[in-house]
Specification:
The structure holds 2 protein chains of 2 kinds.
Chain A (H helix, E strand, L loop, with lengths): L3 E2 L4 E5 L4 E3 L2 E2 L6 E8 L6 E7 L7 E2 L2 E6 L4 E6 L8 E9 L9 E2 L3 E6 L1
Parallel strand pairs in A: 2-12
Antiparallel strand pairs in A: 1-4, 3-9, 5-6, 5-10, 7-8, 8-9, 10-11, 10-12
Chain B lengths: L2 E5 L2 E4 L5 E8 L5 E7 L5 E9 L2 E4 L6 E6 L2 E6 L8 E8 L11 E2 L3 E5 L1
Parallel strand pairs in B: 2-11
Antiparallel strand pairs in B: 1-3, 3-8, 4-5, 4-9, 5-6, 7-8, 9-10, 9-11
Chain lengths: 117, 116
């Protein structure tokens, strides 16, 4: 069963506008972490933001924020004031609290964002 | 600060030829190490991970193998490449002991492999 689902394969956003990228997950583990990574066309994976399952507040990192709805098992990424450099693939990933299993991540299929000037 | 290197950056190999991709990490000790493969326009598939020297866990049955001969060196190999081995290979590291903010994984620049 797929554990991380990103239903938007691609989307356009106007420069300076906000964009929301959807991510839903499935786990029976009460302790887990959710990550978002950005992959520009160069291929490198850049860590953006993290949300722990027990965190009381939604995570924020600069222009990135995470809309965490635990009951709905969703962790949507919001990018505010989009810039041309935000054009990239974005991946949601989950880490379950199985530390003995090596801090592994399960990735979603990604969403491609294209920012229009 | 920590850095992660991968080489080569690109590789074109014929079917049936061997493969060796190398990943090294600097600036940390006893990291967890990971090999991922990414097909074009797709997500990342975890191939192998290692929590210590000589300790390799395989996530999917395949034509590839991994080794960790030194603490900060991770090698991905194949004896005979298949067409289906083409893809973008990413190495990553993480720590379990809280020396990074979220024990997040940090990725190398990747190797683009084309098997013809």
């Amino acid at each position: 069963a797929q554990k991380i689902t990103q239903t938007q394969p691609g989307m356009f956003v106007q420069e300076k506008e906000a964009v929301t990228l959807d991510c839903t997950y499935d786990t029976s583990d009460p302790s887990y972490g959710l990550f978002w990574y950005k992959q520009p066309s160069s291929g490198e994976m850049i860590f953006l933001i993290y949300q722990g399952s027990y965190d009381q507040q939604n995570a924020t990192e600069g222009r990135y924020s995470l809309n965490f709805q635990k009951a709905r098992k969703s962790a949507n990424l919001v990018i505010s004031a989009s810039q041309l450099g935000d054009s990239a693939m974005y991946f949601c990933a989950m880490r379950e609290a199985s530390w003995a299993a090596g801090n592994k991540l399960t990735f979603g299929g990604g969403t491609r964002v294209l920012v229009k000037p | 600060s920590q850095t992660i290197h991968q080489w080569p950056a690109t590789l074109v190999q014929p079917v049936g030829s061997p493969l060796s991709l190398e990943c090294t990490v600097e600036g940390t000790s006893n990291p967890n190490l990971y090999w991922y493969r990414q097909a074009a326009g797709r997500g990342l598939q975890l191939l192998f991970y290692s929590v210590g020297i000589g300790q390799i866990s395989s996530e999917v049955p395949q034509n590839l193998s991994a080794s960790r001969p030194q603490d900060r060196q991770f090698i991905l190999s194949s004896k005979k490449l298949l067409l289906s081995d083409s893809g973008f290979y990413l190495c990553a590291w993480s720590t379990n002991h809280g020396t990074t903010r979220y024990n997040e994984q940090f990725f190398g620049p990747g190797t683009r492999l084309t098997v013809l």
